Hints:
The chain has helices spanning 34-39, 48-55, 59-67, 85-99, 104-130, and strands at 7-9, 12-14, 46-47, 74-75, 81-83. The chain is mainly alpha-helical. The protein has one domain (11-130): Multidrug-efflux Transporter Regulator, Chain: A, Domain 2. Helix 4 packs across helix 5 (104-130). The radius of gyration is 15 Å and the shape is flat. The relative contact order is 0.16.
Amino acid sequence: MDQTHQVPHSGRDRPRNTRDTTAGKTTAASAGSPGQRLDDEDYPAYSMGRAAEILGVSPAFLRSLGAAKLIEPLRSEGGHRRFSRYQLRLAARARELVDAGTALEAACRIIVLEDQLAEALRINEELRRRD
């Protein structure tokens, strides 16, 4: 599996949303041109308030996902959390699981495993096409 998608942290692997935060992108303003950012699902375009509004959750819920190491939003130059579309999808999935009665830590682990499975299936399909 691609190592950028499997970053061990606190005894568990994190989903791919964290690959850019540990590989040099440290601010919301550090991505490419505006046109590229529109298509980049990892570009941190959403503020904490906007992300919470889109998902129908509280900022505290998003912070709890950060504390659980499911998503680690980038910080703007002013220190504000910025979320990507990919991170919002993970947060939405976490909310679904928590709303269904799954404990937050268990929900985060399920999401990590789902992400790893999807990546493995993508790689397998790519390898099949090469043959």
